[in-house]
Specification:
Layout lengths: L2 H4 L29 H11 L5 H7 L4 H8 L8 H4 L9 H12 L21 E5 L6 E5 L21 E2 L12 H18 L6 H11 L17 H14 L5 H9 L2 H6 L13 H10 L16 H11 L2 E5 L3 E7 L14 E2 L8 E2 L16 H14 L3 H19 L6 H17 L4 H9 L17 H11 L3 E2 L6 H16 L29 H15 L14 E2 L2 H9 L1 H4 L2 H12 L6 H9 L12 H10 L4 H18 L9
Helix pairs in contact: 7-9, 7-19, 8-9, 12-13, 15-16, 18-19, 18-20, 24-26, 25-26
Length: about 650
């Protein structure tokens, strides 16, 4: 491969004389087994990396069996907990009782039934900087949540961490709420690393990008000291539970979820102070997927539709605007019913000139809508409108399917792909009443998905690059997963991923990552000269267990045992020979073949290392096998394998999925 061409958009593709490769269709690819390259392609697209043991296990299963397993989701509905909360759960009686229960070893309000288990307090610790000194010292201790218990309902705390040297630059980092926020982010990566054979976590991240939010934006005054990071967890769990469910249901729940209301200003959208932010993005990004039309010609929604939809959305907020952001609430006195009894929300020709909201109630007589039923019904009317009209159904389905396609298959959508594949999936989504699972089943079972044109067609996103290291190479840490060490590991991954070209899992805008909307560059946004350097550095640090760059604590270690790994997966006879070992590693780790020159270099990396110069790889392996307790003999073999893998990470092919 040519690195220069790899990192830029080709200007020559339109002049190629060779016919384009076939795109296939949506018919079943096979009812039998996939080849190993096909299985690797499927798993690397639908999960984060591929453990070799899973490759071995699922090589013996038929495609329909594999797809059925991938399309499983055991996540729990967050309403199992939130519906159990009493009124005014933010006040002292509830919070004091919750604290007492947690310290008594109880896990109330169904928190112990949540799948996956909620993030817990593994941040209590003594903190020294620099290492081994007490120049700066903090003691982190959460008074409300004991170690190992979930913090996602507990009272917010702006309590500063005890410190013997307080510096202003550390103010925000020295609060319990900051520790909870970073633990919540770490928990997200924990789910990715420990995922089973399921598309659940890949789809959760897809919806996070489809409906982006952030826990660092708040209208509640100082971020540290409120429930916003708690709302981020419940929002994430909402996306996870509905990840392969019904799109309409998910869209409706997201629209009035406190996390989204806060992020796109719905929480301040009321009759006195209208805010059009979410009313605009609901149409432009999340549902319709079009930009507004300058004239009312029926081609798209108009600016007036933005105004009217924002009126429809007015009055939705969290159940306690000052402290609570866990549950939605509708306030009739904040809703825009209209100035007169005949004042409706008049939508444009795009919406068939539909009028919504003639309740016989005005803004001055909102008390007549005692429980808000009539005001809330306006949003349901809008959703009934867009999901019942065949023309609007197709527009919405196209928006969803194109985003799914660019995320899982190929960022380039040709006219032929649009006609055959996109339209076919759109028809299926509408036929299935916007259920996502049948569409994913059709896509991942299709001829089209397994065509050569789609293998290695995506640049590996930073999250995939980082998480796959831990999954594929089977990391080991010196403390259990349910411990501070694992939370620190995942927090380290989070911040290194951000450096890896900015795939933060919290967002600064309503559009998500540029890689899925920035035409014609798309996924090439993931990789450039700068981000390639950081990928190389992080990869080298991680597989060598060098944590100093990421953490100033040394009470836990990270290791990868590559010697045992290759013996276990490939057998001794193939693992000890650099030729067969390189073949097996490349066949597993890559979805496209390594170019001949790079393949030679990769294989040569097994032949020499500064610490074992002149010794043959096979002889080093023989020395270790003769005395498996000799850690130095094992280290010499490990160094050769790591050297080869670090080179592989510099090749273009390694960064394709």
């Amino acid at each position: 491969m040519n690195r220069r061409n790899f990192l830029k958009v080709s200007k020559k593709s339109a002049t190629l004389s060779a016919p384009p490769p076939p795109i296939g269709d949506l018919n079943l690819y096979t009812s039998g087994k996939l080849s190993k390259p096909e299985l690797i392609h499927l798993f690397k697209r639908t999960m984060y990396g591929l453990k070799y043991s899973d490759l071995t296990l699922y090589s013996n299963k038929n495609l329909p069996e594999i797809i059925a397993q991938l399309l499983t989701n055991d996540a729990t509905d967050p309403d199992l907990v939130l519906s159990q909360l009493p009124d005014k759960y933010w006040e002292a009686p509830f919070m004091d009782k919750l604290k007492a229960d947690l310290f008594a070893g109880k896990t109330p309000y169904n928190l112990d039934k949540m799948v996956p288990s909620p993030p817990e307090n593994f941040y209590n610790r003594d903190y020294y900087w620099p290492r081994g000194t007490k120049n700066e010292y903090w003691k982190i201790y959460d008074d409300d949540v004991p170690e190992g218990k979930p913090f996602v309902l507990s009272r917010a705390s702006d309590k500063s961490i005890v410190s013997n040297e307080f510096k202003s630059v550390y103010t925000t980092f020295h609060t319990i709420d900051y520790q909870r926020w970073t633990s919540k982010l770490s928990w997200r990566y924990q789910q990715m690393i420990s995922q089973q054979i399921s598309i659940r976590e890949k789809m959760t991240l897809f919806w996070s990008n489809f409906f982006p939010t952030s826990s660092t934006k708040t209208y509640l005054g100082n971020y540290y000291g409120n429930f916003q990071h708690h709302a981020g967890y419940w929002y994430d769990q909402l996306l996870r539970f509905h990840s392969i469910g019904n799109y309409r249901t998910l869209l409706r729940k997201v629209t009035t979820h406190p996390q989204m209301l806060n992020f796109l200003d719905g929480i301040v959208n009321n009759v006195q102070n209208p805010n059009q932010n979410y009313g605009r993005e609901l149409q432009e990004v999340y549902a319709i997927g079009l930009t507004p039309s300058a004239v009312d010609d029926g081609s798209s929604y108009t600016e007036q539709d933005v105004v009217e939809l924002s009126r429809i959305l007015s009055g939705w907020e969290s159940d306690h605007a000052a402290y609570g952001l866990l549950r939605e609430k509708f306030s009739p006195w904040k809703h825009d019913y209209g100035k007169t009894t005949s004042d409706t929300k008049k939508l444009s020709r795009f919406y068939n000139n539909k009028e919504i909201g003639n309740h016989g109630i005005t803004n001055s007589t909102y008390q007549l809508d005692t429980d808000g039923t009539k005001g809330k019904s306006e949003l349901e009317e809008y959703f009934n409108l867009i999901f019942s009209d065949p023309r609007l159904q197709k527009i919405i389905a196209q928006n969803v399917i194109r985003k799914l396609y660019r995320y899982f298959v190929n960022t380039h959508i040709s006219d032929e792909v649009e006609s055959v594949i996109i339209n076919g999936l759109v028809d299926e989504l509408i036929k299935q009443n916007f259920e996502i699972k049948p569409v994913l089943k059709m896509l991942f079972s299709s001829n089209h998905f397994y065509q050569i044109i789609n293998r290695g067609a995506l640049i590996k996103p930073p999250v995939d690059h980082a998480v796959s290291i831990f999954r594929e190479f089977e990391y080991k840490i010196s403390l259990p997963e349910r411990s501070l060490a694992f939370y620190e590991l995942c927090n380290m991954i989070n911040f290194s991923v951000v450096q890896d070209n900015g795939q933060s899992i919290e967002f600064v805008n309503a559009f998500g990552w540029r890689a899925y909307y920035d035409r014609p560059v798309y996924d090439r946004n993931w990789l450039n000269g700068s981000s390639m350097v950081t990928r190389i550095r992080h990869f080298s640090n991680l597989i060598n267990g060098n944590l100093y760059e990421y953490t100033n604590r040394d009470f836990w270690t990270l290791q990868f045992d590559f010697v045992d790994l290759v013996i276990q997966h490939f057998g001794v006879s193939r693992a000890r020979n650099e030729t067969t070992l390189s073949e097996d590693l490349l066949a597993w780790l890559l979805v496209v073949p390594l170019c001949p020159d790079s393949k030679i270099i990769f294989q040569d990396k097994f032949k020499d290392h500064v610490n074992s110069k002149g010794m043959k790889f096979n002889d080093l392996f023989s020395n270790y096998l003769a005395d498996p307790t000799n850690q130095n003999a094992k280290k010499l073999v490990q160094e050769r394998i790591i050297e080869a893998l670090m080179y592989l990470n510099t090749t273009e092919e390694f960064h394709l999925i």
